[in-house]
Model the fold of this input.
Amino acid sequence: MNTDKNKSIIIALCLMILSMAVVCGAETNKIMKFIPDRDSEDATMLKFEVRYVYAATTTSTQTAYITAVPLGNGRDEIRVKCKPAKIKEGRNTVTLTMEYDGKKTYEEGKSIRVIMFAGNEDNILAKEIFDYDKIWSNDPDYAGEDKNAITKFTPVKETETVNKLEFKVEYINNTQRDKEIYLYAYPVTANGSIVMVKTTQMKIDQKKGVAVLVLEYAGKESQAVSSAITVKMAVKDSKGNMQDFASTEFKYSKTWSVGETWVDDGSSLPKIIEFKADNVLILRGTCTVLHWKVQNASKVFLNKVQMYGFSNEVCPETNANYFLVAANQRGETQPAMVMIRVVLK
Done:
């Protein structure tokens, strides 16, 4: 009798432990991630995915849903239509779409509140707020009051040569729609000088879109080096002059050369033709500019820092040596040095 009673107690304890393990291992309701679909987004709508965990046992027989609402700067709700999406038990992903339902443009959307509920929205199972800046408007192309911008730069690598660069730019034109608007561009060196190129002037007539521009090298000396591409948006006046009203600089290192190819035949050792300073004797607290000319060099370093132009300002506080190194694509180098002496005022 005692043996049977002990067995019953042991079985009951095992079942209790197993039940506790199941409960402890069960996942809780949770909104895990907010993934916006930026390709389909405009000012009137936002489509996005929500990753979640739903433990069905917490809601008994009630159907569970996920919905969302955008919030303003003060966490006030922005009026949108968002049909709640029915969800399944476990870890899953659901897609939602919000459509603007307000009458006035709202420029201060700062976040998205995502809610999981059972039966009705008063029975909240989980919620999470995700940071997300967005303008809401009845105009799908609206991008902000008085906003004009070049937003993205994408080089076409397949067609690029040392004397040509083709690229796409995405733009927003929100203030000059009734005039002739053009996009144009040019390469810029690290010290701000412009590389000589022929540039297309692409006329645009949309409020928001993508344009293709082409730059062709127009210099006489090979191996000009740029570190950025400046793209400008301009309006053409009655005399045909371009008046810029938006500009963006995109970092893009590129070597420019005469001809479609630059071939190192093995005899093209790097050469420093000239390396000099405007002044080799300066007063403390003042500066001087170093200049150089090189041949057969794909990279130039000044005191081990790569340069992207043909000059650099230096302001030493004491006597200083500046070492220039020209390197070709095989790693062969040639050095040169300039000494700057500093005297007290």
The radius of gyration is 32 Å. The chain has one helix and 24 strands. The CA atoms of residues 55 and 274 lie 74 Å apart.
